[in-house]
Amino acid sequence: MMDKRVATPRIDMWTLVGLALLLLPLLTMAHELLGHGLVCVASGHRPSELGAYYVECPGTGAWSRRTVAMAGTGVDVVVAVLAVLAWRFVQRPLPKLVLWIVFTVKGMVAAGYWMFSGATNLGDWGPAAGGGIGPLPWPWLWRALMFAIGLCAYIMVVKRSIRMMFAMLGGGEQARHVQRRAAMTIYLVGGAMAVLVSLFNPLGIVITLMSAVASSFGGTAGLFNVAWSRPCTEPPRDFTVGRNYAIVILGVLVTLGFAVVLGPTVYLH
How many Cβ atoms are within 10 Å of 217's Cβ, its own excluded? Predict the structure, then answer.
């Protein structure tokens, strides 16, 4: 008799938590250290402070300052593009899930930065006086253009993330449950981790609100759209990620190291 076992997608909750604790600090460090920090050094300057959610690069001229400010989001875009390209060629469930997280988080954060700076003139891309790339002529025009581009990019990232989920899990009630749990676990664990780590920063609540909260709870809010997207009409797929204690332990260690070392800020003299 033929085996007619129905495919059942499943992702272990503890492994999801471990992946969030492992990947999100690393992705944040890519933005801050590989983006802002490395470009600060490449421009002939030396960072004076390395924090979990900010890098201080003193002594820069106008264009060097703008380049350093834009570099973090530039790294986010590169990482997101590489992740979505690699996702297409990976077959095993765990690496595929990892690449989905990387693309979704970095894509949403990059697009979210443009929307945030366009709406508020705060953050790395603020074009008016006091903003990261300001002052530019016609700042309101720049802000409107930046917000529009960021919004379009954000919608594209959300739609792509949902399609990737459908391709991994398929449809059906079980797949919808797994999709919802995966999206909301990454959102809640990542946001809580960001806020808790940012509380150690010496600059106070400003960094917590403008960087940690804005980039986590705000930047990845599109995960709500992923969690409660329209149902997939395809059959369920046999996509299983079991419990991986190594990922859970490594995630806890990486998050603790991130909090202990970069949370209070590293001062370079």
Answer: 16
